[in-house]
Amino acid sequence: MNKREKIIIGNWKLNGSKQLMQDTLVELGQAINPHHAANNFTLAICSPSIYVGEMIQLAMQISNKLLIGCKNINTDPHTFTGELSAHTAKAMGCKLCLVGHTERRTALNEGNYSYHIKVKQLLAAGVSPALCIGETLEEKLAGKTYTVLHQQITQALAGITLGDNTPLYIVYEPAYAISSSQALTPVFAQAVHADIRRLLSDILGATQTNKIAIIYGGSVNHDNALNLIAQPDVDGLLIGCANSNLQHFRAICNKV
Ligand code: PEP
């Protein structure tokens, strides 16, 4: 049994209304119980940034185990109209921010170097980066999973030092598993997570790596969640579609 933080992150994508947001947070507040509090468990929601301020206010009234985050920042700290920077995310009260979600990697062609800058800026601002990595189906079939992850991790984390107060999360989300009903089997997820942990250890050293939660994402639902998170190197889950069904999302949180 490891001592790392267990975390479930809900990715709200572009879904949501003010009412849904309020209902969800209240429902999730009820899913957080003393068992979670005693077991270093955190629940986080990454919401469309327009809702973030209000969600933070509401979450603070519900539980300090309920964190709110955003889903991207721009690396330009001052001038990029329409975007959010690391320091605005911090000023709003965001505790975490997704970096490099596969929808951005593929559609916007953002590169690992921009993710490196985002990770650095977020850590400096005191907002936890949740760095998403993962291979495409073509890369997997070509036997390139390890090579792709190695490149994504080394380029994004080169020269990064972690402090004690702002955790870094690594989210392994194979592109083909996202919203596809093709979640990885727990055994396969465990094997890749163990590889990722070894890679992180080579880059950051064992002590720092032991503090990093490695999170699985891709078609997690209330049937497969428990077996996935039971794996020794699967420290958390990133959940997209299944969190739009409140009952299912709550059931997943209750099982962890
Ligand atoms: C996601 O988009 O980050 C995600 C994990 O989605 P889903 O759970 O729907 O696969």
Automatic annotation (TrEMBL):
Q: Does the keyword Thylakoid apply?
A: no
What keywords does the record list, in alphabetical order? Cytoplasm, Gluconeogenesis, Glycolysis, Isomerase
Question: Which InterPro entries does the UniProt record give?
Answer: Aldolase_TIM, TIM_sf, Triosephosphate_isomerase
Q: Write the Enzyme Commission number(s) for this entry.
A: 5.3.1.1
Compartments where found = Cytoplasm
Q: Which domain of life is it from?
A: Bacteria
Its Gene Ontology cellular component terms are:
cytosol
Q: Key word Cytoplasm present in the record?
A: yes
One molecular function GO term is: triose-phosphate isomerase activity
The record's Gene Ontology biological-process terms are:
gluconeogenesis; glyceraldehyde-3-phosphate biosynthetic process; glycerol catabolic process; glycolytic process
Pathway the protein acts in: Carbohydrate biosynthesis; gluconeogenesis; Carbohydrate degradation; glycolysis; D-glyceraldehyde 3-phosphate from glycerone phosphate: step 1/1
> One Pfam family, short name please?
TIM
**What is the protein's major site of localization?**
cytoplasm
Reaction catalyzed: D-glyceraldehyde 3-phosphate = dihydroxyacetone phosphate
Q: Which family does it belong to?
A: Belongs to the triosephosphate isomerase family.
Please describe the quaternary structure of this protein: Homodimer.
State what protein this is by name.
Triosephosphate isomerase
Q: Which organism is it from?
A: Cellvibrio mixtus
